[in-house]
Design goal:
It is built from 2 helices and 5 strands; from the N terminus they run H-E-E-E-H-E-E. It has a domain at 24-104. The longest helix has 11 residues, at 61-71. The protein has a 5-stranded antiparallel sheet. It has 127 residues and is mostly beta strands.
Length: 127
């Protein structure tokens, strides 16, 4: 049984307090969850899960816009992309708070494509 505060009371989603600094990770999958706040309509949000990570990160609009400019607006296109997750001071409801920001990270080079096969062109061409 754990006796750590965050293990007992922490969120199932990644929070700024979970990180001690910037971390680079690869997006393993994107899931969609419904969130309801008191006196507000239910909203669907994307949640990114990272390779070898334990918690998903709820993608807010600011992070979604940053990722969309780098990887496109289709969430499935983000899978396999490397990102840097940074805890930063942000504003929530007009007050400073610790939040998470996503930034595109350098991507591994694409595998070199093989040159097209060379065919022996022995056709009789009239020119």
């Amino acid at each position: 049984m754990t006796t750590e505060f965050d293990d007992i009371y922490g969120s199932r989603f990644l929070a700024a307090t979970d990180l001690k600094g910037a971390v680079t990770a690869t997006i393993e999958r994107i899931e969609y969850e419904q969130f309801t706040r008191p006196n507000q309509p239910t909203r669907t949000k994307a949640v990114a899960y990272f390779r070898n990570g334990k918690k998903g990160m709820v993608i807010n609009k600011t992070n979604a816009a940053t990722m969309a400019s780098a990887f496109g607006k289709k969430f499935p296109d983000w899978v396999g992309k490397r990102v840097t997750i940074k805890p930063e001071t942000t504003a929530f409801a007009g007050k400073p708070t610790q939040g998470l920001r996503l930034y595109p990270a350098p991507q591994p080079p694409a595998p070199e494509s093989q040159p097209p096969p060379q065919y022996d062109m022995d056709d009789k061409i009239p020119w």
